[in-house]
């Protein structure tokens, strides 16, 4: 599982990366802390774990920044977690991962996040990053203006 946080690029220092990440996640002694710059949000992704997972998360953030809608929702459903990125205009509101081994639990976290930021699903397009099960897409079509795969 990827351990990560986003910080403003002005706060980033290579020498302080481990300390910054350890303030929000529990790091093991053998965890290597790495970073990815995210110029689209003037942020840095600090992470420990699989580079492919970090690249996917970075791709989701870049995809959200590149959408031409005001409300930007990008979701990736993995085998044990759902990653959710939400932005309004150019402002990043949420980038988080939640434990969800099934689509119903993933949808719970998605709707909860949208509710927290007062985003109306009926006028919002949800974008899947990567593959999306047709059944899940069908379920979401009942609640969202549109469902698209990036």
Q: Your description of this structure?
A:
- By secondary structure, the protein is an alpha/beta fold.
- The protein folds into two domains: 1-49; 51-150, 2-Layer Sandwich (Nucleotidyltransferase, domain 5), CATH 3.30.420.260.
- It is built from four helices and eight strands, in the order E-H-E-E-H-E-E-E-H-E-H-E.
- The protein has helices at residues 17-22, 51-66, 103-116, 134-141, and strands at 3-8, 34-38, 43-48, 71-77, 81-88, 91-99, 125-128, 146-149.
- Strands 6-5-4-7-8 form a five-stranded mixed sheet, with helices on both faces. Strands 1-3-2 form a three-stranded antiparallel sheet.
- The chain is globular, with a radius of gyration of 15 Å.
- 27% of the residues are buried.
- The model has no long low-confidence stretch (mean pLDDT 92).
Name the CATH superfamily classification of the largest domain: Protein of unknown function DUF3822, C-terminal domain
Strand and helix order = EHEEHEEEHEHE
Question: How are strands sequenced across the largest beta sheet?
Answer: 6-5-4-7-8
- How many H/I helical runs? 4
> Mind summarizing the main beta sheet?
5 strands, mixed
What portion of residues belong to β-strands? 25-35%
Under the CATH scheme, which architecture of the largest domain would be assigned? 2-Layer Sandwich
Annotation keywords:
33% strand; alpha/beta; three-stranded antiparallel β-sheet; five-stranded mixed β-sheet; 2 domains; 150 residues; Nucleotidyltransferase, domain 5; 4 helices
